[in-house]
Amino acid sequence: MGTCREEETTLKCVWVHGPIIVGAGPSGLAASACLADKGVPSLLLEKSNCIASLWQYKTYDRLTLHLPKQFCELPLMGFPADFPKYPSKEQFVSYMESYASRYSIEPRFGQSVESAEFDPSCGFWRVRTQDMKYLSRWIIIATGENAEPVVPDMQGMDKFHGPVIHTSVYKSGAEFRNQNVLVVGCGNSGMEVCLDLCSHNASPHMVVRNTVHVLPREMFGYSTFGVAMALLKWFPLRLVDKFLLLVANFTFGNTERLGLRRPKTGPIELKNVTGKTPVLDVGALSQIKTGKIKVMEGVREITRRGAKFIDGQEKEFDSIIFATGYKSNVPSWLKSDFFTEQGMPKTPFPNGWKGDNGLYSVGFTRRGLLGTTSDAIKIAKDIADQHMAFKDAKITTYNAHIVLQKKS
Ligand SMILES: Cc1cc2nc3c(=O)[nH]c(=O)nc-3n(C[C@H](O)[C@H](O)[C@H](O)COP(=O)(O)OP(=O)(O)OC[C@H]3O[C@@H](n4cnc5c(N)ncnc54)[C@H](O)[C@@H]3O)c2cc1C
Ligand SMILES: NC(=O)C1=CN([C@@H]2O[C@H](COP(=O)(O)OP(=O)(O)OC[C@H]3O[C@@H](n4cnc5c(N)ncnc54)[C@H](OP(=O)(O)O)[C@@H]3O)[C@@H](O)[C@H]2O)C=CC1
Ligand SMILES: O=C(O)C(=O)Cc1c[nH]c2ccccc12
């Protein structure tokens, strides 16, 4: 890494020998480790003050991985053998800390990337944070599919008398003991928060406005995800989906009578096509059956003391929790037409990892940590090949400095 004195009066400018990686979550760490393994240094810029900030700050206490650990390992280093099949979030974070230390990954914390743009006149990416400028031939976007919470603008929300939060700040049902809580959304977060509220004697009402696939997390003692992956090696996707639904119906009965209508498209096909993750049930469904979690149709409006629903019911609530998911923040800072307006690569999996001019993305596959691993390995190989050629061309910090000075 070298420094340059571009715009001396404003921000300090750093020239980076290897790629700049934006985001030190699992994807950024995986990319950095795979590069290190090939002898390529990288600079990780992270806006938070720790690695894996999503897992450390924005998840609830009872969270465990809902895929078995072999599907959530980062490349090059597996989980410790004594970890359970579904590690807790604390175990997952401690694994990532060991991973970072194993590959000597030391992100620059407190660096929020506010803009990044390729400069064709010098062939470098210009990356700006709140107090620094960085330059590199390569940029790897690793800010995640879940960078910002999504909170819909519901009519009357400003009038509501009680707390309104998003699941990204929910920790435990202990704060909602004996309360009537409206939970908006029925993805994995909505279901698990409702379950947690039940175990703290709160009364959750979960809004299900649409169709949803709920699958048991395990089938015959094997993880549903593992069963699906194994079957997909031999059978077509639609047949595998049919099988999963057969077992789900056998396990739960018809979920439609509980207010949970299934989409026409099967669960894995839907995940692949739209990214919508099926719910892997860890107990919420039985609480819906006992009536402890009440399923409500869409909300018409929020009132001062509660909500009116589209079926005409009106109920009082003490708190509202939005389990309405997340979105990418890439469009707010990256200047490139590689990403859609929603901040996802335009080219679908498995080809969305590489753009033009040294742009890469890791962890935007809608395939969880398995997708992260697949991207990180390909990116590291691609950059390592160029890095060798680049090194051979003996382009030094000094030369780059001159290019920059000519430009400014
Ligand atoms: C509650 C929850 C549970 C999940 N469980 C699983 C699971 O069991 N299995 C699975 O495979 N997947 C799971 N996922 C999917 C999840 O997205 C991945 O596990 C994983 O966290 C994705 O890693 P990532 O590094 O791509 O993104 P993130 O973990 O979101 O990391 C992105 C990092 O980028 C930083 N950042 C963002 N913007 C900027 C910026 N402009 N400048 C600098 N830094 C920035 C963030 O602070 C963050 O640290 C889960 C997701 C959630 C929300
Ligand atoms: N244990 C684990 O490993 C866990 C994993 N996760 C993962 O984290 C990611 C994010 O999950 P999650 O936070 O549940 O988000 P999701 O995007 O998966 O789900 C959001 C939910 O909110 C609903 N919704 C959105 N807007 C509205 C609205 N205006 N009114 C009513 N409902 C609305 C959606 O319904 P609609 O379909 O109609 O849009 C959907 O049911 C997923 O990949 C998930 O698998 C999450 C929790 C636990
Ligand atoms: O937990 C998540 O959000 C994931 O994306 C993990 C995941 C990847 N592919 C899936 C298919 C079915 C259920 C979960 C996942």
Automatic annotation (TrEMBL):
Biological process annotations from GO? auxin biosynthetic process
> Which cofactors does it use?
FAD
Q: Does the keyword Manganese apply?
A: no
The organism's place on the tree of life at top rank: Eukaryota
Read off the InterPro entries from this record.
Answer: Auxin_biosynth/cation_transpt, FAD/NAD-bd_sf
Q: Which PANTHER family match?
A: FLAVIN-BINDING MONOOXYGENASE-LIKE PROTEIN (AFU_ORTHOLOGUE AFUA_4G09220), FLAVIN-CONTAINING MONOOXYGENASE
Tell me its family: Belongs to the FMO family.
Q: What is this protein called?
A: indole-3-pyruvate monooxygenase
Organism this protein belongs to: Protea cynaroides
Q: What is the lineage of its organism?
A: Eukaryota, Viridiplantae, Streptophyta, Embryophyta, Tracheophyta
